[in-house]
Amino acid sequence: ADLTISCGAVGAELQLCKEAVEAWSKQTGNNVEVVSTPNSATERLSFYQQILSAQSTDIDIIQIDMVWPGMLAKHLMDLREVLPANATQGYFQAQVDNATVNGRLVTMPWFTDSGLLYYRKDLLEKYNKQVPQTWEEMTTTAREVQQAERTAGNPNAWGYVFQGRAYEGLTCNALEWISSQPEGGLVNPQGDIVVNSPASRAALTLAKSWVGDISPRGVLNYTEEEGRGVFQSGNALFMRNWPYVWALVQSQGSVVKDKVGVAPLPRGGTTGTHASTLGGWGLAVSRYSAHPELAAQLVSYLTSAQQQKHRALSAAYNPVIESLYQDPELLAAMPYYSQLHSILNDGVMRPASITADRYPRVSNAFFDRVHGVLAGELPVDQALAELESELTRIKRRNW
Ligand SMILES: OC[C@H]1O[C@H](O[C@H]2O[C@H](CO)[C@@H](O)[C@H](O)[C@H]2O)[C@H](O)[C@@H](O)[C@@H]1O
Question: Gene3D superfamilies, per this entry (predicted)?
Answer without folding.
Answer: Periplasmic binding protein-like II (3.40.190.10)
